[in-house]
Design goal:
Elements lengths: L5 E6 L10 H8 L3 E4 L5 H4 L7 E4 L11 H13 L3 E6 L9 H10 L4 E4 L4 H9 L11 E6 L12 H4 L4 E6 L5 H10 L7 E6 L7 E6 L3 H8 L5 E5 L11 H11 L1
Parallel strand pairs: 1-4, 1-5, 2-3, 2-4, 6-7
Antiparallel strand pairs: 7-10, 8-9, 8-10
């Protein structure tokens, strides 16, 4: 058997290549193979060496062309071929990125595995919109939840625990289920007029955002045509967001100058 390779689970950040960590850039530039998700931008993939093998394994809601078990097999096979494998994921690999499942599978197969953390989608979207995720007097806590379950099963969340207006609630992958989520939260006491920020394709040139309220966010997001990936920030801090992306703000300032 030849020399055994290794796998690094690398966070690609929320979308903007400038938000990659220095270490992420270094390991991508040295990769022998890059196994990447659907939302990793071409600009980030272009950092890989020309000789590197690029393997797309992206998923979308209710569409998993490469099942997780097969992704695990691909990572193991590439490492056994002696390659330095970068498993490139949007945001952070351990925040709704299934990085934990892949790390367990790799360790069980005897493959050396490490993690390079990335800026999460929540951090990127909130920062781009100028909305702090926590703020004295507005939010004393922060919770991240996923808007869809494994195998597209029905949502089964701690609705009573989540319906806390003192806590900022960040919902990943919830564009298809936001109406149900909002209804469940309000049924457990969360006020319907609570502000909600929705951000599509955060930190990229295609970023779109809107500020609504809990009892209207599903309708407003649908009417605005927001398409996945969309991240929702529910809580009083959402009222602090600027509804216009930075590029639009700069255009408006130039027009008024």
């Amino acid at each position: 058997m030849g020399k055994l390779g290794s796998v690094l689970l690398v966070g690609a950040g929320p979308g903007d290549p400038d938000l990659l960590t220095v270490r992420a850039v270094k390991v991508i530039e040295r990769a022998g193979a890059v196994v990447h998700d659907r939302l990793v931008s071409p600009e980030i993939l272009a950092l890989a060496p020309r000789r590197a093998l690029l393997v797309p394994v992206g998923k979308a809601a209710q569409r998993h062309p490469v099942p997780q078990s097969r992704i695990n097999e691909i990572l193991i096979d590439l490492a056994r071929r002696g390659l330095a494998v970068v498993r490139l994921k949007g945001g952070d690999p351990f925040v709704f990125g299934r990085g934990g499942e892949e790390a367990l599978a790799l360790r069980a197969a005897g493959i050396p595995v490490g993690v390079v953390p990335g800026i999460t989608a929540a951090q990127g979207a909130a920062a781009a919109a100028g909305a702090p995720l926590t703020q004295r007097g507005l939010a004393t806590g922060l919770r991240y939840v996923t808007g869809h379950c494994r195998g597209d099963r029905p949502l089964d969340l701690d609705w009573a625990g989540l319906a806390d207006p003192e806590t900022t609630l960040v919902i990943y992958m919830g564009v298809a289920t936001m109406a149900e989520i909002a209804a469940r939260l309000m049924a457990h006491g969360m006020p319907g007029d609570l502000p909600v920020l929705a951000v599509a394709e955060a930190t990229t040139p295609r970023e779109r955002r809107l500020v609504s309220r809990l009892d209207a966010i599903a309708r407003d997001a649908r009417e605005a045509g927001l398409a996945a990936p969309v991240l929702f920030v529910v809580g009083r801090v959402a009222a602090l967001a600027d509804p216009l992306p930075l590029a639009a703000q700069l255009r408006a300032m130039a027009a008024n100058a």
